[in-house]
Amino acid sequence: MRVFVVHAHPEPKSFNGAMTRQATEGLTAAGHEVAVSDLYAMGFNAVSDRRNFTTTHDPHYYRQESEESYAAAHDGFSSDIQAEMDKLFWCDALILQFPLWWFGVPAILKGWVDRVFASGGKIYGGGKWFDRGVLAGKRAMCSTTIGGQPPMYSAHGLSGPISTILFPINHGMLYFTGFTVVEPFIVHAPRRISCEDRAEYLARYRDRVLGLATAPTISYPKLDDYDEQFVLKSSQSTRNQLDLHSTVKTPRP
Amino acid sequence: MRVFVVHAHPEPKSFNGAMTRQATEGLTAAGHEVAVSDLYAMGFNAVSDRRNFTTTHDPHYYRQESEESYAAAHDGFSSDIQAEMDKLFWCDALILQFPLWWFGVPAILKGWVDRVFASGGKIYGGGKWFDRGVLAGKRAMCSTTIGGQPPMYSAHGLSGPISTILFPINHGMLYFTGFTVVEPFIVHAPRRISCEDRAEYLARYRDRVLGLATAPTISYPKLDDYDEQFVLKSSQSTRNQLDLHSTVKTPRP
């Protein structure tokens, strides 16, 4: 198995750092291959603009999708973006490792998605999306730390259901580009638990990563389930899909 | 009325640009005051790290919340962050103007939130959140352009309900810090509509911005509605709140 970890935390000694080291060591020891993009360590540029490209389609009006399509047709992506695309094509499984900041990915990781997930058929576009996506056949998983406790992220919790909070990532970024989405691995309040519980979390994370190929996945409708207006044909609904995944599945120590 | 627009689009000639110009001109002509943070034009740093601070609490281990609390107590925020905080305190209403990228705000705007919305009681913390938030009494609104058509963002649409997609922003960023959240103003596929329809959208946007003080808002539960585990006491649910707002409210030309 080839696993690509995109890691987004400014402190190497953080629990996020420990999780990525655990994943890397566990996978390597088991004979798998691992690539890590440590976005903070790389000084990855988070801001999507003309610097994404070595080509220019329209110098007078910057339309990102048009520039992406032109770059896709003319080998015109900047080297930092091309390197990330190459790792995406290389991997069998992608892990997004991040602390949940403001109910989403940190800006440096959002910028990675904004810039690397380019249209024009490179990562999506031309009918290549969701189950017909460029990255179909690969798996992807969010691995995230959250400051609050699980009740706060339950169906009636103050923060809202974690499945709703992660929906734009799991469905909107990962499934959109074709990935089969593995249930997220969530660690609550790693600062506030004991060393033993942290070790237990890491052991479970190692197991999850080693079992990525068979770990439980989130089931979304397929493109064929939608009509020409992109509305579900049957009574099956995306809201039901959300409801199915509104509980926190990660076992707690 | 003092209105603060945080604008996140790389192309000044874009429809997002036209919307912010429309808001600025309309508000100014009506005697209101406007401040605009044009994040791309400012070259705003999107990446949250030690550069957020002039102070250092722990040089060996970077914990963002600890550094924020220390900076809040020692006047230690970097000048770019302090300037944005000052505009937040100054305004009566905040507008986030952005294209929906990957079902969320562009990274440069996520970075603005990651960096400016600091804990330690400055923007939140110490019991100051949601209806007891630092920014309570002020209003905030998302104004966003979306590439796809409304059916795709309806309850059973391919992208998922727009209310679910915007929940982490409306509830998790804006209500979290105390804002009263105004219904979003959404423009679908501005590239694919006629000049007349674009003009109509701009006229309606001008009306919405001029009427910000009385525009319809999203009703969320209050902190007193939650128990000590931050779970709703009554049968009222955040999911119901989501359901209430699962339709696209912005009138279409």
UniProtKB/TrEMBL annotation, chains A, B:
Species this protein is from: Bradyrhizobium lablabi
- Designated name of the protein: NAD(P)H dehydrogenase (Quinone)
InterPro entries for this protein: Flavodoxin_fold, Flavoprotein-like_sf, NAD(P)H_dehydrogenase_qn
Domain of life assignment: Bacteria
The Flavodoxin-like fold domain covers which part of the protein? 1-208
Sorted alphabetically, which Pfam families does this protein's record hold?
Answer: Flavodoxin_2 (PF02525)
As recorded in UniProt, coiled-coil segments are none
Question: Which Gene Ontology cellular-component terms appear in the entry?
Answer: cytosol
Q: Which family does it belong to?
A: Belongs to the NAD(P)H dehydrogenase (quinone) family.
Alphabetic keyword roster: Oxidoreductase
Named from the GO MF annotations, one term is: NAD(P)H dehydrogenase (quinone) activity
PANTHER family membership: NAD P H OXIDOREDUCTASE-RELATED (PTHR10204), NAD(P)H DEHYDROGENASE [QUINONE] 1 ISOFORM 1 (PTHR10204:SF34)
